[in-house]
């Protein structure tokens, strides 16, 4: 029930409900106002404003009756209800009451002392009548008025018994001033207000001037009250009622209602014809007894963990939504042709290709249907499966993951046909060399160290500088994933003993993909890097520190045992990305200066080479991420003649084929050999060619 303070404050005023009529009926009957306010309105009579709130509600009810009385001539005069009950008490008038003697007075005055008590009472009643029936004309009139009051309330009950409807105007239920402020923004009906609150969350009121947090909570509370929802069946979601802190730890399914549409898989409600229960390629085997497509996909995701699970869920979700919303097909009914259409869809999310040509969009829903302006949490109604177009590398990864999903569905007997068998995961503009180039060169690492120790230190201050320096250097020196570093503890680094003696080395225990635990030996520079950061955090160095504190802390809690989740991993990733972008800015300035210099330089070719080199560095820093340091670690170790198996062990790759991506030796050897042969060819041509005479070489094989 709405708090009566809303009426006083002018924030919200509901129509009269049954509890209001019960309150008024009890008041007309003459019951105590504090008692009935507590019983029917939930007002604490002992509260400082308890009595005043009850009186305020009574005044509001009377005003509502006045308004309703003006709408229909058939209704009784509402002013009847305004008569205070104390004025209509049904006792005899004081004058009449004073003229009737008591039984004792009657006996003494009229000489009935010698009569029995029964005879005395009979004589008293014969003379004055039944005291309970003694009424003068004023008392009888008051009783008639009180009965009319109750009858009027009964008549008005039919008028006030209306219930809210989704298409009702907001002004019919909300205070006029408040309704006007919402209507100015286009929210006129109750349904539009609920949708707006669910879309914008618990801070929706910030978009409306002079609507505060108290009024916002009251409106949401009334909309979600049991009597209102019993007729509306359109609740304000939990997400819209809780703040960000209160939502932490809650599942998406607890924050949003299940529905069919562009929503995360956790709350996607599929009609039976799109659920995959009767999918075109469903197998009769179905060893795992998966009920539908979503159940099969969830089973597949349960074999993954951490960031891998998150990436795989995203790609499975996208192909599932594309099938049901664009093709109107279940996942288990998609054909090879449908998957090739999906491949085209992924490449068409961008409006232009790399050459500036417009990309066609041969799909039913517009691009904006699939793309959001920025990433939103999965519990946010503004969430969409794509936060922007996919790069060629991301497209290739998406197709690779989809092929993995179909292989799982085939192997567990869920599908009898694999439509992805003919789907090439290669996409236009993608080459293996591009995958190998997602790394920093030795010179670029050197530049980053110089930059962080000079310009960046001055930009962000000591605290941020020390943490950023440790983050990117430790990632590069260890090859850790950013998620692994986010959850690493000081106690994970332990001394190495051989034949009972300390070797002077340290090893680090890491929980990686699939919760697999592995160990690897740290380099001396990695240990020094960690010790420098620990010293900055006022902590003992490695070897003298076996605490369970996190290795990386926040700026105000340097490595303290604060709670960790994937949001912290994302925060560290953003710190690295911001640092790399900052590192690109001085290079851009150098490029601008070189371009200005090239206009007056006698040999602009030399400047052109410098500009090209600097632009390459800028491109690396602006497109790079924390994971590039892991790639750089593997590449630089192999370039230093480490074996693939050694690097595989340090990077904890399951397959040596993954580590082999970092092998550039063949290319390096080819470049070296080609340059040597170029010198031989140059000497050959310069000696054999006469002056001013071209020669033709014929090679006999």
Features:
701 residues; mainly alpha; three-stranded antiparallel beta sheet; 32 helices; disordered N terminus; disordered C terminus
Structure report:
The protein is mostly helical and 701 residues long. The chain contains 32 helices and three strands. The protein has helices spanning 5-9, 18-28, 33-41, 50-71, 94-98, 103-110, 117-128, 137-160, 176-183, 190-200, 213-223, 226-232, 238-241, 244-247, 252-255, 293-301, 306-327, 336-347, 367-370, 392-411, 432-436, 442-453, 455-460, 462-478, 482-486, 524-536, 566-598, 604-623, 627-639, 644-651, 656-659, 665-688; strands spanning 493-498, 501-511, 517-522. It has a three-stranded antiparallel sheet. Strand 2 (501-511) and strand 3 form a beta hairpin. Helix 2 packs antiparallel against helix 3. The relative contact order is 0.05.
């Amino acid at each position: 029930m709405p708090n009566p303070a809303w009426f006083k404050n002018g924030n919200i005023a509901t129509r009269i409900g049954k509890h209001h009529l019960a309150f008024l009926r009890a008041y007309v009957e003459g019951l105590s106002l504090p008692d009935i306010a507590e019983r029917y309105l939930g007002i604490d009579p002992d509260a400082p404003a308890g009595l005043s709130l009850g009186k305020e509600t009574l005044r509001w009810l009377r005003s509502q009756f006045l308004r309703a009385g003006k709408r229909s001539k058939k209704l009784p005069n509402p002013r009847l209800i305004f008569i205070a009950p104390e004025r209509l008490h049904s006792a005899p008038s004081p004058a009449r009451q004073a003229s009737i003697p008591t039984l004792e007075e009657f006996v003494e005055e009229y000489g009935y002392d010698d009569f029995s008590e029964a005879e005395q009472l009979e004589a008293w009643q014969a003379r004055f009548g039944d005291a309970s029936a003694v009424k003068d004309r004023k008392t009888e009139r008051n009783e008639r008025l009180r009965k009319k009051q109750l009858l009027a309330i009964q008549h008005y009950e039919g008028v006030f018994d209306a219930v809210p409807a989704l298409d009702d105007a907001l002004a019919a239920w909300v205070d006029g001033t408040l309704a006007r402020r919402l209507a100015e923004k286009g929210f006129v009906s109750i349904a539009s207000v609920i949708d707006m609150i669910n879309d914008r969350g618990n801070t929706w009121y910030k978009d409306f001037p002079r609507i505060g947090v108290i009024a916002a909570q009251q409106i949401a509370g009334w909309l979600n009250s049991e009597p209102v929802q019993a007729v509306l069946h359109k609740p304000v979601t939990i997400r819209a009622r809780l703040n960000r802190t209160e939502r932490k730890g809650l599942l998406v399914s607890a924050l949003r209602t299940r529905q069919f549409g562009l929503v995360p898989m956790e709350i996607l409600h599929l009609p039976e014809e799109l659920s995959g229960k009767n999918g075109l390629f469903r197998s009769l085997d179905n060893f795992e007894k998966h009920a539908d497509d979503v159940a099969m996909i969830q089973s597949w995701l349960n074999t993954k963990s951490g960031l891998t699970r998150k990436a795989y869920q995203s790609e499975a979700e996208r192909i599932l939504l594309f099938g049901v919303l664009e093709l109107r097909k279940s996942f288990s009914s998609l054909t090879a042709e449908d998957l090739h259409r999906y491949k085209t869809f992924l490449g068409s999310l961008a409006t232009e290709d790399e050459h500036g040509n417009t990309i066609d969009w041969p799909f039913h829903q517009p691009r904006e249907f699939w793309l959001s302006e920025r990433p939103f949490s999965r519990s946010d109604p503004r969430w969409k499966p794509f936060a922007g177009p996919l790069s060629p590398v991301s497209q290739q990864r998406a197709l690779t993951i989809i092929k993995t999903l179909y292989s799982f569905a085939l192997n567990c007997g869920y599908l009898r046909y694999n439509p992805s068998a003919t789907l090439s995961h290669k996409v236009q503009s993608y080459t293996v060399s591009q995958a190998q180039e997602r790394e920093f060169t030795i010179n670029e690492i050197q530049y980053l160290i110089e930059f962080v120790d000079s310009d960046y230190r001055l930009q962000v201050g000591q605290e941020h500088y020390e943490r950023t320096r440790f983050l990117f250097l430790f990632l590069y020196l260890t090859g850790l994933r950013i998620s692994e570093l986010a959850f690493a503890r000081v106690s994970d680094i332990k001394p190495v003993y051989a034949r009972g003696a300390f070797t002077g080395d340290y090893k680090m225990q890491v929980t990686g993909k699939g919760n697999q635990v592995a160990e690897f030996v740290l380099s001396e520079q990695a240990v020094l890097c960690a010790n420098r950061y620990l010293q900055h955090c006022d902590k003992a160095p490695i070897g003298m520190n076996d605490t369970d504190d996190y290795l990386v802390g926040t700026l105000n809690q340097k490595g303290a045992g604060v709670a960790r989740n994937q949001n912290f991993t994302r925060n560290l990733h953003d710190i690295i990305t911001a640092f790399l972008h900052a590192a690109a800015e001085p290079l851009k300035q150098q490029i601008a200066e070189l371009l200005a210099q090239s206009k007056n330089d006698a040999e602009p070719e030399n400047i052109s080479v410098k500009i090209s080199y600097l632009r390459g560095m800028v491109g690396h820093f602006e497109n790079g991420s924390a994971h590039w340091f892991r790639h750089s670690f593997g590449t630089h170790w192999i370039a230093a003649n480490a074996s693939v198996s050694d690097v595989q062990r340090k990077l904890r790759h399951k397959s040596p084929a993954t580590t082999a991506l970092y092998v550039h030796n063949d290319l390096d050897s080819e470049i070296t050999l080609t340059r040597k042969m170029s010198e031989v060819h140059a000497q050959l041509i310069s000696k054999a060619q006469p002056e001013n005479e071209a020669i033709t070489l014929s090679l006999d094989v």
